[in-house]
Amino acid sequence: MTSTHSQSMLKNRTFQCFPVNTKSVLANKVSTKGVHCMMTFQHPPRNRMKSLATFCAGLFLCIFMSCSGEISLNIPGCEKCPTRCLDENGRGTCVVCLVDKDCRSVADSTKICTPDNKCVCGSDKDCPQGQHCDGNKGCVDCTSNEHCTEKDRSICVENFCVACRSGDERACAGEGGAPCRQGTQTCRGNGTWGSCQGAVVCHSNEKCVEDKCVNACPEAPCTLDEAKCATTGKEMPGKRRLCVKNAQGCLEWSELQTCGEKEFCAKGVCTPFQCSPVCQIDDKRCEGNDAFSTCTKDQDGCPQWSTTHSCGTGGKVCTNGDCLCPTGKKDCGGTCLECCSQNDCTGGQTCEKNVCVCPQGQDFCDGKCVDLQKDKDHCGACLKKCNSVEECNSGLCCPKGQLNCGGTCIAPDSDAKHCGGCGKTCASEQICSVGICCPKGQLNCGGTCIDPKTDSRNCGICGKACPSGQFCNGGLCCANGQNNCGGTCTDLKSDRANCGQCGTTCASGQFCSKGLCCANGQINCGGKCIDPTSDNANCGVCRKSCGANGRCLSGICCATGQVNCGGKCINLKTSSQNCGKCGAACPTGEACSDGMCCPSGQTSCSGVCKDLKTDNTNCGKCGTVCTSGQFCSQGLCCPTGQINCGGTCIDPRKNRSHCGRCGNRCSPTSGTAQSACFAGKCMIRCYFKNHLVRCSGGLTTEQCKDVYTDSNHCGACRNKCPSNRTCTDATCVLVPCGPTKQPCANGEYCSNDLCCKVGFTNCGGKCVDFKNDPKNCGKCGQVCTSSQTCLSGNCCNNGEVLCGGKCVNLRTNRKNCGRCGNSCSPTSGTAQSACFAGKCMIRCYFKNHLVRCSGGLTTEKCRNIYTDVNHCGACKVTCASGQSCVDAVCK
To answer: What predicted TM-score, i.e. pTM, was given to this entire model?
Structure first.
């Protein structure tokens, strides 16, 4: 048998030989003569014996035919596999497992390897807390209702705990008012209850009548069956109204009802007419001014006017048949009087002996009781008005503020004979000030006599208070230390025209210094004029001594070596605003060093500005030179790659107390969470793998990553490098690709020596998208047929869509009816739910292609909704005249 024939037999037996030096680690392998052989079981358990026989035959061929050392099979694609690889049509495919033990990383694991080489749970113990194992589906939320313990999600549907099954219904009450009619809630496709439909609630102004809300009744105008006449006397035919209930159940008067032709209405009752309508029983009429008669029945029962009745001797007169008191009089026990009680009197009067009278001291004027001594509208007599600037004072109209003293109006605020009141006379040496007798020259301020020339609370006039810090001088508010000189406040210590005292004027060339006239430029110190700009004993101000080591420069004491620049003592060697000389300011960002402007942070070294923190020839101070292999870090010579932290050179990429920067200390370790510094960042290192970082999990489940080389965790966990870069020393750097070794552009990555956009793969020198390429659907070379479409890497028949990774027909799929996840309700007895034209309907018993449009098992009406024009697409959907039903659509 030739080597070529051996290769062919090996491929046909679903196993393959690999060279020993391959990068892949293979499961179920046998090694001989430098070749690893792997057998892949691709059959269900009932064919395992047949597969084992195939394996033995293949092993024999591998050892004695193919594995002679002369043939080396290199399967494209296997070089990328981290653990296991299968040969599929000459192309290596990476798989997770081959047998169950490949899935079990811990001792008590029960995970199993599925026929499609994926690891799934074998029991609930392989699932996270709260989940359960469901065979090839893996770990799910539930497999039965017992797993659903939440009150509002107690039903298990499609491995999810939901509130209800799609299509279920329950009664519900509406919100926002009083319940009137129950509604219905329907379970939606996602297992949650929909909104309450059809419920009726009534608001506060409504009531419920036969499942409907109607307006609440207003106040009833009558009682049920009550009647009233709409005509008077014996008018015929009489008319009346009845009290009835309307459509809303509310009481109201009915439309007019007409009595019989010879009937009249009496007290709401239609009464037959028998007598001549002379009058209506109990009616009255006047017989002159002082008598009346009443309508009574005669001996035959017909109405007639009675004999005359007198209104009596109480003063009443007849009005409309009744004896009443005249207007302005009250009926007091049958006698007409002015008043019977207090309620009968108006305008403030009271009833005394049946007469309305005003309180004592008041008179009744123009409908009310008034005091003629005070009332402006009735001053001294009724209707005698004072004008707008007068007041009524003891029955006399006087100007406002004046009094009636003996029939004469006087001003009590200023009249010395009537000061404050009639007859109050001031002494000869006094004046009347606002109604109080005060000594001449004083004023009455708030009831107290004050001197307006000196009183700081009433300076010049009452109520004029001097502000804080001022006092009253001659009736003028002046600041402390000032005096009133001729009506002007002046400082006798500084006023040249009033120096020391009012009227003392300093000569030309002099000014007033503390009340002493001194030459210009001099000040008064202890009664002596001195020059404060140069006097060391009085520098700038009196008694300010510069001492033995200072000198007075333009009124400022400066230390030796300083100069006066604009009123400040300045060191010209260090001042940035006066560097070298007064006014020589350094530019923004520079500072003065030894009289020379240098950039901020630099120092003048031999006339040249240097940064002592970074200059290798002046490190820390002028003249300090760092040796070869060192550089200056914050004024300290440190080895390359290290920095100065607190006077010590450290490596910031690894130092746990100064990670990334000085003082950035990584948190202390706690149990198995050991903090360390990686690439200048604080991270949790893996247990017993100190060079790796824990990016997730705990001690037993930790995911360890090398942040210095891992492109998905470069420099930090989950810091993924762009597709065209790789991780080198914790930094994402460009990757050379293909023969030219040029890096790929942004948004691209190197796929088998070809730059492709992210999401595309190199298939035979061309970048393709596995998601939608019909010639490379899901993998290179997998071609969809002409009746298929590539959807997310799956060849689906035309008209199908992808739901949960599976191709489904939304028009017929019961679990995805009309849209993904819309599952038709489970069947119940003979009511078998199915998907027709994308809608969930009940199918006919033993006629699965037809829909039950009415009836039950024995009486069901079955219809083909794809062709029936009266049931097109759904029961009772009728196509228009002239249309046909084609594939459940009217056309």
So the answer is: 0.28
